[in-house]
Amino acid sequence: MGILIKNGEIITAADRFVGDVYCDGGKIVAVGTGLVKQGQDDVVIDASGQLVFPGGVDAHVHMELPFMGTESSDDFETGTAAGVAGGTTSIIDFVIPGRGQDLLDGLAMWKEKAKKAVADYAFHMAVTWWGDKTAREMEHCVREEGIPSFKTFMAYRGAIGVDDVELIQVMEKAKELGALVTAHCEHGDAVVALQQRFLREGKTTPRYHAESRPAPIEGEATARAIMLARMWGEPIYIVHLTCIEALDAVAEARRRGQVVLAETCPQYLLLDDSVYDKPDFEGAAYVMSPPIRPKGHQDALWAGLASGLIQTVATDHCPFHQVGQKDMGRDNFTKIPNGAAGIENRLGLLWTYGVLTGRIDANKFVDLFATQPAKIFGLYPRKGAILPGADADIVIFDPTATSTISAKTHHHRCDRNIFEGFEVKGKARYVIVNGRVQFNDGKLDVQRGAGRYLPRKLDKVSAPVRQ
Ligand code: URP
Ligand code: ZN
Ligand code: ZN
């Protein structure tokens, strides 16, 4: 059974035109005008007055991540379902082996967990320590498993964080393999020193999470990661960039022609650090690393998106309930699990506060939301495109619908939403995933386990940045 989408305004990263899309066998078969049904039982969707985008690719999520003594509260089923409700049809999650654990052990665990996914998924591999087998296992990831991107954490010292020696080892090996290193940039030792100072002074509330990880700490680590990549392993992709200092480091490198790619997230574009002063420990919902920044950084990030310094907007979806998880740190901010939900809200927020405010145009929106993450991480044109031969992952978006984000109505498995009360204009009316309508007028119709693993291959990592 095919699906014919008629008379929608099709928006890709490059084009905008009224036309039709015909899908069959899970693929887009034709894009054009005047297309007609091919089979008796084809479904026809009248998309007049609606916008048609490629399904979103969220390149940074953590489903059921064991972290800080607990586990992120969305599993692969509930998290990918929430993504579908928000027009995100593919995710890239992070395999994060513990310190001392083999990469391939970690991968086996993540493969098992991800079998529940309702939408397609890929993995990045985090290298959290360097051992005798690490280089060989990295090679196996790239050559046999379709995982050509490696994550390093410069924060989280004593847990999953690496030191500079280990980071250099990852970069050298990744360069040899033609793989992409991604980095969480915060000066891990400086964070620990500040945390200890605040705890000694009896400063234990969520506000001190932010105070112990100020912007210069991210800026320094970003510059250092870029410098190390310049010496040992260009290119590099900076995850969840939040601040002017880090953006300056990226801009400086790109002026020199270094291939540096960067990602930010809606929370860093739309929230400021006053969230940490909410009463009754509600600031804990916003405890994530890096933290939400003071006013001023958000405008710089929007400008970074518009000017092309930042290529992708992901979510870093990593939810923890306030009750039973975040409250582990009620008396000590360093024990509050780091992370928040966002996969369902990326589309509405980026459209409303990016496109409708004129900060980015609609093509740029599609690029940030779907096309660039697919290109950078080796999923394009299977994902992130409305082209014949691409997977039939399509969002039909009603630009007139309005809604208010709330934990009471979201699909995230989390008792808080950090965008609570945000008004959103425009809404996914239908979301087609692998050629089947899986979200229709507010109702999810997903299948546990229907998501497929997406092996990836990077042809030329530098292409998107040199465009
Ligand atoms: O606070 C965050 N970001 N939690 C998820 C892990 C990470 O650092 O990406
Ligand atoms: Zn991170
Ligand atoms: Zn993350």
Short description:
The protein has 467 residues and is α/β, with parallel strands linked by helices. It contains 12 helices and 19 strands. Helix 4 (164-177) crosses helix 7.
The pLDDT mean sits at 97
Distance between the termini: 38 Å
CATH architecture of the largest domain: Alpha-Beta Barrel
Helix content: 25-40%
Oligomer: single chain
CATH-defined topology of the largest domain: TIM Barrel
Largest sheet: 9 strands, mixed
CATH class of the largest domain: Alpha Beta
| Global morphology | globular
The number of helical segments is: 12
Q: Going by CATH, what is the homologous superfamily of the largest domain?
A: Metal-dependent hydrolases
Beta-strand portion reads: 15-25%
What is the number of domains? 2
Enumerate the distinct ligands: N-(aminocarbonyl)-beta-alanine, zinc ion
- The computed structural class is alpha/beta
Total strands: the figure is 19
Explain the overall architecture.
The protein is of the alpha/beta class and 467 residues long. Helices cover 30% and strands 23% of the residues. The protein has helices spanning 76-85, 103-114, 134-145, 164-177, 188-200, 207-211, 215-233, 244-255, 266-270, 297-307, 346-355, 362-376; strands spanning 3-11, 16-24, 27-32, 43-46, 51-54, 56-61, 66-67, 70-71, 88-95, 120-126, 149-153, 180-184, 236-238, 260-264, 312-313, 394-404, 423-433, 436-440, 443-444. Strands 1, 2, 3, 4, 5, 16, 17, 18 and 19 form a 9-stranded mixed beta sheet that branches. Strands 6-9-10-11-12-13-14-15 form an 8-stranded parallel beta sheet. A hairpin with a 2-residue loop joins β7 (66-67) and β8.
